[in-house]
Amino acid sequence: MFPTSISCLVALSLMSHGLLAQKQPENVITDDTYFYGQSPAVYPTHTGSWAAAVAKAKNLVSQLTLEEKVNLTAGGQTSTGCSGFIPGIPRVGFHGLCLADAGNGVRNTDYVSSFPSGIHVGASWNPELTYSRSYYMGAEAKAKGVNILLGPVFGPLGRVVEGGRNWEGFSNDPYLAGKLGHEAVAGIQDAGVVACGKHFLAQEQETHRLAASITGADAISSNVDDKTLHELYLCVMCSYNRANNSHACQNSKLLNGLLKGELGFQGFVVSDWGAQQSGMASALAGLDVAMPSSILWGANLTLGVNNGTVPESQVDNMVTRILATWYQLNQDQDTEAPGHGLAANLWDPHPVVDARNASSKPTLWDGAVEGHVLVKNTDNALPFKSNMKLVSLFGYSHKAPDKNTPEPAQAMFSPWSVGVQSANLTELNTGFLGNLSLTYSAIAPNGTLISGGGSGANGWSSFSSPFDAFVTRARKDGTALFWDFESWDPSVNPTSEACIVAGNAWASEGWDRPATYDAYTDELINNVADKCANTIVVLHNAGTRLVDGFFSHPNVTAIIYAHLPG
């Protein structure tokens, strides 16, 4: 049974065994009854712990005009930095809802923490840590005026190993992903913020996730058989892709039949940003809120009700779900305006809302540590002896990025706002626009990775690089350090007792990784190992990273997957 505590679904993009992702064929089947018959409109009843919230919501809905109800079903304008905003209705005491991205913490704002990524937490196998991380993430969102946190990420599960967003999810094991996802939802919502699980359903790759702006090709269809669907994907923003040739945000089989009917989901379904592909059809299929706005609803939805295309009872159901969520987490008791701590532009004068909490420091530390995985350790090369005289450091991923500041224009997808300070910034906008003609880099050459890129990333308030940590420890132990972070074939001092090579594996929303290794980093590691008998490799990897190119080198004594520690 899907946990009813999850109050918002954003199109859970999941896929795995038995699921086929493919480009649209020429003879595409557009009639979904070919796959699973006509899906009737399904409006589940609300019971159990939601009963009181639903009763309050229905009472409030009864006081609204049709136009007011329709206004709640699509995003509206806001003067804040919320990623999305459901407009308020002041005359009845509803002040609106602020939606914010938060894979690693609240995005596009200041004075927040950068928490370990989903892949990092998944590597810890620690439910208690997952809950604590999510609770403090939710608490920071609450302090900033966020009502709905656009996470956690249940999918992608990682069926496509090069998937650009695999790092946002917990694991490609559906059981582990479900267990940690449950803890993440509980933690966020115990902090008083709605958890919005995403992406529903079967969005396992970034390539062709959107209809191509250049070629005009439709979004990819993730074709899933019924057995696979039930075994792997019943955990939940409807997604960009199509599922069984029907766009996920207008797929009545998934939204009405599976999610709201079979699973009894009582929250509301919100589209991924720009994923709404139809007007009346998506309303009838189970989409409740279109983000970030909707040219297909608004006056058109009002007209659809008035001419009988959409029953007003369906609009009532959509709005009841939105308001019931608001009541369920007691957000009607909030005294601050939604998004009050999220400045629209951090370069403009704005009130400082420091959302960080000193009590979260142990969780941040434990989360960073526990996601490291030691995959090779020959002759107990690690841990180091405390009396080393000389250690040499190599590789582009040792240092902090050269720049960490918001852009004056503060575009929604500026480099700082989507966590790509370490990456090749020329790739950013083309990826999000669906132009896949570029070959994207497999590494982030400008410094250490602490998260992947895209809407799941956030800006950190402070940063401690591996190099910073080595300097601090070397001072304490009296160890000398040599380093070269520029050379591909560096000189290695023969008296070095250990050589540490730091590389990374970059991934981002908007495109898929070009490979699961990169020749440059492999050759760098081998070049150092040829000259140093005790070479330790540390990889900050935003996904699967093959190590066969250097694993068997006799001088590579240890390898660590450092993942994305925040």
UniProtKB/TrEMBL annotation:
Query: Which species is listed as the source?
Result: Fusarium oxysporum (strain Fo5176)
* Alphabetic keyword roster: Carbohydrate metabolism, Glycoprotein, Glycosidase, Hydrolase, Polysaccharide degradation, Signal
Protein name, per record = beta-glucosidase
Among InterPro entries, the record links this protein to:
Cellulose_deg_GH3, GH, Glyco_hydro_3_AS, Glyco_hydro_3_C, Glyco_hydro_3_C_sf, Glyco_hydro_3_N, Glyco_hydro_3_N_sf
Source organism phylogeny = Eukaryota, Fungi, Dikarya, Ascomycota, Pezizomycotina
The entry's family comment says:
Belongs to the glycosyl hydrolase 3 family.
Q: What biological-process terms (Gene Ontology) are attached?
A: cellulose catabolic process
Instruction: List, for all copies, the residue spans of the domain called Glycoside hydrolase family 3 C-terminal.
Output: 373-566
Q: Which residues cross the membrane?
A: none
Q: Where is the Glycoside hydrolase family 3 N-terminal domain?
A: 103-323
Reaction catalysed by this chain?
Hydrolysis of terminal, non-reducing beta-D-glucosyl residues with release of beta-D-glucose
Leader peptide range in chain numbering: 1-21
Any one Gene Ontology molecular-function term assigned to this protein's record: beta-glucosidase activity
Stored Pfam families: Glyco_hydro_3 (PF00933), Glyco_hydro_3_C (PF01915)
Give the Enzyme Commission number: 3.2.1.21
Q: Which leading EC class covers this enzyme? A: hydrolase
